[in-house]
Amino acid sequence: MLTQAHRRRRKPHRPLTVHNTGQHEGTEIAQVYVALPATAKRKLQTSRSVPARKAGARQSKEVTLTLNQLCLSVFNTDQNGWQLLPGDYNVMAGPSSSDTPLKATLHIHP
Description:
Elements: E1 13-19, E2 26-28, E3 31-35, E4 45-49, E5 53-55, E6 60-66, E7 74-76, E8 81-83, E9 87-94, E10 102-108
Antiparallel strand pairs: 1-6, 2-5, 3-4, 3-9, 7-8, 9-10
């Protein structure tokens, strides 16, 4: 589970393993989606791609996902700036938005 309090100098990160189950070399771009916490009062999801990794036939490659503060923030029109909201962010990853087998929760504390 991805659980880490936000700190300005530390960015939440998590390794992901990309598996090539085919018989030929291939490249995979994992898609990562972050659902905003309930405090956002919106149901938006942000997306991010993990850099493409080549893997030989039946090989696996590890990639590291780093979530920076901006990709977890919402724009606050009253303050005219980006705001990181406290709460639980649901993080999902997979080959597409309709196929996200990896799920975790990122807890942001005030």
